[in-house]
Amino acid sequence: QKEVEQNSGPLSVPEGAIASLNCTYSDRGSQSFFWYRQYSGKSPELIMSIYSNGDKEDGRFTAQLNKASQYVSLLIRDSQPSDSATYLCAVNGGGSNYKLTFGKGTLLTVNP
Amino acid sequence: ETGVTQSPTHLIKTRGQQVTLRCSSQSGHNTVSWYQQALGQGPQFIFQYYREEENGRGNFPPRFSGLQFPNYSSELNVNALELDDSALYLCASSLGLSAGGENGYTFGSGTRLTVV
After folding, report:
1. Short-list B61, B58, B103, CA closest to B79
2. What span, in angstroms and rounded, lies between the C-alpha atoms of B22 and B25?
3. Going residue by residue through chain B (116 aa), what tens digit of pLDDT does each one get?
4. A-to-B residue pairs, Cβ atoms closer than 8 angstroms
5. For A35, nearest residue in chain B (alpha carbons)
6. How far does CA B104 lie from the centroid of its chain?
7. Is the dihedral angle over the CA atoms B51, B18, A105, A43 positive or is it negative?
8. Any chain B CB within 8 A of the CB of A32?
9. Chain B interface test: which of A7, A43, A48, A107 (most B C-beta within 10 Å)
């Protein structure tokens, strides 16, 4: 059973702080990794993708990938109340590259 | 360029009934994937259709079935509805046999199904 595990949360941070979201995956053959943001009652929207070990930065967001440790994380700098949402980690690749395997998500609340 | 559209947005059905959900893929995309997201859970892969053929299926019973049409739009059919089928059903389109490739999926806005 291919699994994706996320820190259970909920995670609460003050406005302006760094929010750190973590994800581990079980399939060593996984090749692509994604972070989706989902507001309550809405569908997931892609915010970051990463394929190579190391860091990838996009504005206030930084994704980090360590394939040896089977670990991927998302850092949100200067957190804003509008960042309050559930963050879903998704993994693709290995023997079933036609689908994404999602974690359960971590609820982030940014307090003004 | 139009995005992925799903219909209806909300639906209430009675246990034992049948339901059909619809998805129009993004322009230029030939693959449609369906996911089920129960409350408090991440989306779970149901199946994928590529050029009108099923190309992979998740751990869902046969009463979950689908179709893809020549224009690449798709339907998800669920027979003999159960209470646990209550969920947000998400459709995503992509080009080729992958989970959206480097750019991941763009999901439609979803259909919220409630089974009572």
Report:
1. B61
2. 10
3. 458 999 999 999 999 999 999 999 888 888 899 999 999 999 999 999 988 999 889 999 999 999 999 988 999 999 999 999 999 999 998 877 666 566 667 899 999 999 99
4. 69
5. B104
6. 16
7. positive
8. yes
9. A43
